[in-house]
Amino acid sequence: MGGTLTILTGPSGIGKTTLCRKVADAARSSGHDLAGLVCPAGFMQSRKVGISAHDLRTRETRELAWLHDPARPGSVTHGQWTFDESVLAWGNELLQRATPCELLIVDELGTLELLEQRGWTAGISALSSRDYDHALLVVRTDLVTHALSLWPEASVVYAGDSVARGHLLETYNRARRPDRESR
């Protein structure tokens, strides 16, 4: 397939995951074959307290991470977050099966994956396979240079850029090409 890759970046809270969900909804409603993960935050009284993982193919959602709490042990701790190791494994399994597809969304690859080779490492392999028409990868601003070292052909879109957001949404609001077979 040799698909194109867009790296979506910006600081926490700017709307990267929200944009991924909108692109996924547009792609799904237009009949595109969609795969990957989006990871919306959970809030309590305006404070981010958790992160869920949502499978874009099956629409299954699992609790991925929560603020570190000694009373609630987890398997992988990174900074203030504790990650459920079984959900990391589940995410890796679905990313291994994600391609081929028309649109692959990986929200997000961070320090765990890009610098420590932990977490959703299958996302790196899926993106590197280029066995998709288009991929949308979420990466924090401080990791864009590292992501570009892995995928130098990728374009970078800042989530705060309304023109770029509009372009991404328009791309997947278009109806699926009639020459595409279902996967």
Give me the count of strands.
10
Give the helix tally.
Answer: 6
Helical proportion, percent range: 25-40%
Distance between the termini: 13 Å
Ranges where pLDDT stays below 50 over 5 or more residues in a row are none
The main pleated sheet reads as: 10 strands, mixed
Describe this structure in words.
With 183 residues, the protein is of the alpha/beta class. The protein has a domain at 4-38 and 85-173: 3-Layer(aba) Sandwich (Rossmann fold). The chain is built from six helices and ten strands. It has helices at residues 16-29, 85-96, 111-114, 121-129, 144-150, 162-173, and strands at residues 4-9, 34-38, 41-44, 47-55, 61-67, 76-78, 81-83, 101-107, 132-138, 155-158. Strands 1, 2, 3, 4, 5, 6, 7, 8, 9 and 10 form a ten-stranded mixed β-sheet that branches. Helix 1 (16-29) packs parallel to helix 6 and helix 2 runs parallel beside helix 4 (121-129). It is globular. The two termini are 13 Å apart. The mean pLDDT is 89.
Secondary structure elements and pairings:
Elements: E1 4-9, H1 16-29, E2 34-38, E3 41-44, E4 47-55, E5 61-67, E6 76-78, E7 81-83, H2 85-96, E8 101-107, H3 111-114, H4 121-129, E9 132-138, H5 144-150, E10 155-158, H6 162-173
Parallel strand pairs: 1-9, 1-10, 2-8, 8-9
Antiparallel strand pairs: 2-4, 3-4, 4-5, 5-7, 6-7
Helix pairs in contact: 1-6, 2-4
Give the structure's gist in a few sentences.
The protein is α/β, with parallel strands linked by helices and 183 residues long. Helices cover 32% and strands 30% of the residues. The protein has helices spanning 16-29, 85-96, 111-114, 121-129, 144-150, 162-173, and strands at 4-9, 34-38, 41-44, 47-55, 61-67, 76-78, 81-83, 101-107, 132-138, 155-158.
